[in-house]
Amino acid sequence: MADSRLEPVVLSEAERRTLMGWARHRSTAQGLAMRSRIVLACAEGGGNVAVAARLRLDRKTVARWRSRFLAHRLDGLSDEPRPGVPRTITDAQVEEVVVRTLEEVPAGSTHWSKRELARRVGISPTSVAGIWRAFGLQPWRTEDFKISTDPLLIDKIRDVVGLYLAPPAHAAVFAVDEKPQIQALQRSAPVLPMLPGVPERRSFDYVRHGTVDLFAALNTATGEVIGKLSARHRAVDFRDFLDEIDRQVEPGLAVHLICDNLSTHKAPVVHAWLLARPRFVLHFTPTYSSWIDQVERWFAELERRCLERGNFCSLDALKAALEKWIKVWNEDVKPFRWTKTADQILDRIYRYCDRISKPAH
Q1: Could you read off the pLDDT of 56-81 as tens digits, one per residue?
Q2: Which ranges carry the Tc1-like transposase DDE domain (predicted)?
Q3: Which of 36, 240, 259, 292 could bridge to 19 as Cys pair (CB 3.0-4.6 Å)?
């Protein structure tokens, strides 16, 4: 049918209000919202080609819903029954799966399995899994959290984040920490290499060849790491690491160190060392807030790419691997990019505390 011969779409006031509501409300299904926009555009005038161009749709789509509306009015915009196997799960069963998953647990267990819940509701485990997937429910998963009780939480977050986002001029900022007792583990059998379709395989058991501690200072501006291996992580060992940082940082720069609240960082021997070197300033993170120390992100890279699948026949082999990892890292260094402001972090903490402080239902 040519556009010039199309039957015009004339809406009653009630139909226009209904269509505009469907087109604007977020809760409306996307298909129904699109059809409502098509009918409203047709009512404003213009043929199928013009409406299709305006809404960036296919002309046949506009023609179909125009004719459906003219034939059946608002009822014509609903989806027609589709061919295939009739639906066997009712809306009430879907609701029961969601409600039980969120508000109940089976007797003697901490969470539902899909088979337990399927037996309770009277549907298949596959259907339960599909409903969980559709609603983003994962009852088998859990995550840990710890809210800092530090009375200086706000001040410390503003201090540390300020160093990341707006570091002082003529200064170097380092995120500092130690990774204690890194084990030199040797697998009891040779590692079998990866093959097409087969991952690398390692024996379950291993032999321990001792441990070593790693002190690390991550330059937050450049990403470069200063590292020092030590047999222990006492206050005097931390002081020796500060000596190493002092040697490697240009003499004319102030040095700001971001540390956690470990007692060795506040020991008298460290305090005396700092008094003798006024260019060094320590900034402490809030308690239970290792996530704010950027060097922890570097330790995660070290664990994933060097230690987790490492096979060390001796303590010396482990030390050599750690020193090589630091050297390779510094040869192609990239800083971690901090994006969150202190206000954004604090706002999220406030909202989280508000959630967990409300009584459970």
Answers
A1: 888 888 888 888 888 888 777 776 65
A2: 192-319
A3: 36
